[in-house]
Specification:
Elements: E1 4-10, H1 14-28, E2 32-35, E3 51-52, H2 59-79, E4 86-87, E5 90-94, H3 97-112, E6 118-120, H4 122-128, E7 139-143, E8 147-148, H5 151-164, E9 168-170, E10 175-180, E11 186-190, E12 193-202, H6 208-213, E13 222-231, H7 235-238, E14 246-249, E15 254-259, E16 262-267, H8 293-306, E17 315-325, E18 332-335, E19 342-346, H9 351-368, H10 389-399, H11 425-430, E20 433-438, E21 441-447, H12 466-478, E22 481-484, E23 489-494, H13 498-505, E24 517-523, E25 529-539, E26 542-547, H14 552-562, E27 570-573, E28 578-584, H15 588-595, E29 610-615, E30 618-623, E31 632-638, H16 642-653, E32 659-660, H17 663-673, H18 706-715, E33 720-726, E34 738-741, E35 744-755, E36 760-767, E37 777-782, E38 785-792
Parallel strand pairs: 1-2, 1-12, 2-9, 5-14, 12-19, 22-32
Antiparallel strand pairs: 3-8, 4-8, 5-7, 6-7, 10-11, 11-12, 13-16, 13-17, 14-15, 15-16, 18-19, 20-21, 22-28, 23-26, 23-27, 24-25, 25-26, 28-31, 29-30, 30-31, 33-36, 33-38, 34-35, 34-37, 35-36, 37-38
Flavin-adenine dinucleotide binds next to helix 1, strand 13, strand 17 and helix 9.
Amino acid sequence: MKTNARAVVIGGGAIGVSVAYHLAKYGWGSDVVLLEKHELTSGSTWMAAGNVSFFHSSFYGTQVNMKSIEIFKQLEKETGQNTGWHTTGSIRTADNKNRMDELGYFYSMSKCLGLDVDWVTPEKMKELHPLMNTEGLLGGLYWPDDGDVDPNSLTQALAMGARKYGAELNLHTMVTGIDKLPSGEWLVKTDKGDITCEHVINAAGLWAPEVAKMVGLEIPSIAISHTHILYEKINAVDERDTFLPLVRDPDRSIYLRQEMDSLILGMYEKFGQQWKPKGVPWDYAQTEINPDIDNIADNIEHGMYRFPVLGDTGFKHVTAGPITYTPNGDPLVGPAAPLKNFYHACGYSFGITQSGGIGHFLAGWIMNGEPEIDLWDMDSRRYGSHANWAYNHEKIADTYPRLYSIIYPNEWRDAARPNRTSPIFEYQKAANASFGDYFGWECPNYFAPEGEDTHETPSWRRNNSFDNVKAECKHVMEKVGLLDLTRFAKTRISGPGAEAWLNNLTCQKVPTKDGALALSPCLDPDGMFKTDMTVSRTAKNDYFCVTASVGKKHDQHWMVQNLPEDGSVVMEDLTYKMGCLILAGPKSREVLAKASYDDVSNESFKFSTTKEIYVGRVKCRVNRMNYVGELGFEIFHPMEQQISLYNQLMAVGAEFDLKMFGMYAMDSMRLEKGYLAWKCEMNRHHHPLETNVGWTVKWDKEFIGKAALLKKKEAGITQKLACMVVEATDSDPYGYNGIYKDGERVGITSAGGYGHRVDKSIALGYVAPELAVPGTKLEVEILGRMRAAEVVAMPLYDPKNEKMKA
Ligand SMILES: Cc1cc2nc3c(=O)[nH]c(=O)nc-3n(C[C@H](O)[C@H](O)[C@H](O)COP(=O)(O)OP(=O)(O)OC[C@H]3O[C@@H](n4cnc5c(N)ncnc54)[C@H](O)[C@@H]3O)c2cc1C
């Protein structure tokens, strides 16, 4: 075994071998070593059914699956090893209107990726799958190119490919510890000797949490027992000369596919049963676990209902095996914060399907520093420190049985909540808040009228929150509202090198005067959006930076990785020390003036500046800035004084009718103002010059991504952010809707919703620059239906910013 390598991959399941194969193939060749404690496929991979689908709930997740299928189809030619790939097609059924809406969402999104997918009627389903009882079905989607693969053959083919390109695969070699060396390299210790390397990839599947512990990390991944049943020979299947399509009946929590002369029924059981919740034993390998027949009895009945032939057929084998699950069922991929050159590729519940794509994209990410596509949905940093073992334990018990439940854009499930709360949480509850869960924080989405149920009805259409959100937006527009954004990520950057360092981090010029603040997008080396900060200069070489709460771990990891080693820049995380309440609306200054001992007049507290002032008894850092486009103030304060501050503001605000408002109103108002949102308009696929924040790019200084951005500028931009007003009736655009002109797809939305102050349905999206011109007539596809849309000047609301600057 080698003692030095560029990359060490831990784990010889489908994922680890695919990562090793791609790293070797893309150029690291013999500098890649894979370590497997047993034989290849000794974890979940050994038990998998091997169903492979283009379907994924997210736009980028779908692209991972697309890449996988492309790879699977050519692997045999490249390696000589058959993967057992069959193209069978697959059907996803719907037996209710909400499910049809959900399928409509997937249909529109899939079309944006050029996928071959179409609606099928119950009659057509019966034609495609004659053994199916289509009673009660309203319709479904059909992907003709879906299929299945043999997980073991696939992994062996990837292994042959990896070896072909020079990678060393060491079986029966167990990783026992990992140390960081003073050189910055990793020392991976095994029972066969040690390896020094630059990059480590944790692809240890069921054991990934244990491997993470070796470097001091806790990751939210737990093993759940998953069952599928192989039936005895079925003549009607045996006699066919074409493959039956795989059928997923999500409303009955089952899937069914052909296996040789019979069928396999798979299921998401009534109760998610955790297997070895405190850690999978190291010596477990290639062993089935005892199925719990009581737990699958309902699913078996559902199977017999949808496929009556199963009622006359005996079981040949019942397989139960452990699958890893994360709180939302998506894997944990990419850089492992706060470490350098350590990556996760674990937490997979559909790891056969995703193995090819994730091997490709992660290898590129490791080798080039940035992923080819935005993988935020799978990024391990989407979970903060709140997502510990106990949290995951509760979340998964809820997630697993509902794996096939309808995905709504506005469903806030109760498991593992409340977790993180603002000090004023009880006051928000008393005011009848309907809460959402953002990065573990409870945050009011809207406030229901007194006496009304706060439960929001999940839906792809306008729901019971609509009128309440409208009332909140109107109230903020006419009077004054208070929004809790305590969850903002807050970082203090100080030290003699602070200004120069920050200037390199953002394309914006860092404020040079105390009390100035600047919207400061940050780019990656390719010139694309990395993150977005508000930077306030509090003193010379002392800055207060605010970023999105959900991006906290991502952003701070990126900052840490860029810190100079000489100690000239100091980073302090203030997120949990400081809360933030936003006061917004035409009366906000009057409220603040009454509560504050300091002068907050327009003359002494100008728009886009920051001040340290007393609000009541509380010394606060106040930014005259906000995300809703009204006169307003972001009031940062010591967490322990939030209740005091809140009471003071509400007391003096009573005469101005100060009321709390929630996230949904904020989202509605930001759309009207054309304010960009991280991971919607601002992601790996866009840069400032395509948007309305091109003015933040300061070409007369150096910054990360400048050279690449300059090239894009010189080449001319190919897409531009547009604001569209959509003729929607009861469902507004939501993001990843196709944008069409004369029947041709010309773009995709980044976000959408209803703008209550302007009373219009709004979509933001990227189209060719010549189409991003006010007056251009387009169509936006919502839940599978085309809706007329027109490009309008951005922003729709208060275009001269007179309200903000009032
Ligand atoms: C019953 C069942 C049905 C399934 N059906 C499907 C399906 O139809 N489609 C689909 O896409 N997915 C399916 N899955 C899920 C799929 O099997 C997993 O998502 C996938 O196999 C995960 O692969 P992996 O490489 O991440 O992990 P694993 O397969 O668990 O591999 C991890 C490897 O790491 C090794 N390892 C761990 N620790 C160390 C260490 N310290 N040193 C060295 N080596 C180590 C282990 O020995 C193991 O070989 C199914 C799973 C089950 C159980």
